[in-house]
Amino acid sequence: MVMNDAQTAAPAASPATVPATPAATPAAMSPATGPATALATHAFVPGVTPELSPEERRQMMFDSGIPEELHGQLGVLGISPLAAKMGIIFQEMTVARMVATMPVAGNEQNAGLLHGGAHLVLAETLGSIGAVLHTRGEKPVVGIEISATHHRGATGGLVTGTCTPIHLGGTLTTHEIVMTDEHGKRLSTAKITNMILDPNRR
């Protein structure tokens, strides 16, 4: 596995107690500037879930391009640690359309191409949050099926995932996610189905 600097930078203190710390850059620290173009460096330790203060959690969501009005709808951690680790940045977040970018660098497989699993992480991130927004954050959702067809490889730059709903029901949602490169060429097509759970039966 190829790891990026944010993943390999081990903090000086015990890994089990160190939270992710946002970088203090002007762009990252200014929520009013809109979606971020690059995720600030956060410390991630393999096998350790980041323990974020409310301020760090809020900053990580801003760094990931999540608008403040959605911060309360996205679960206990706000932004998935895996999505943040992979550099996923949200550009659009609505029920009708979800868009995010992800760098190839740091997410390659051993031959230097964007890892097929990275395509699926981007797809599931977009489709699952799309399902959450469909419920207005009022009900938990779980992915029950995902598939992807890979059309071409990518060796660098940013990949864009564009997610649109196929079906938005009371029990199931299904989304299509198309991954493209910086030239608009289709890299993969994924489909995910999520189940909407009854919060009273958990």
What does this molecule look like?
The N terminus is likely disordered. The termini are far apart. By secondary structure, the chain is of the alpha+beta class. Strands 1-2-4-5-6-3 form a six-stranded antiparallel sheet, with helices on one face. The radius of gyration is 17 Å and the shape is globular. The chain is built from four helices and six strands; from the N terminus they run H-H-H-E-E-H-E-E-E-E. It is 19% helix and 26% strand.
Determine the oligomeric state from the structure. Answer: single chain
Radius of gyration: 17 Å
Share of helix, binned: 10-25%
Strand order of the largest sheet: 1-2-4-5-6-3
How do the strands and helices of this protein lay out in sequence?
Blueprint: H1 5-8, H2 54-63, H3 81-85, E1 89-93, E2 98-103, H4 116-134, E3 141-150, E4 158-168, E5 172-180, E6 186-196
Antiparallel strand pairs: 1-2, 2-4, 3-6, 4-5, 5-6
Characteristics:
single chain; alpha+beta; 6-stranded antiparallel beta sheet; 26% strand; disordered N terminus
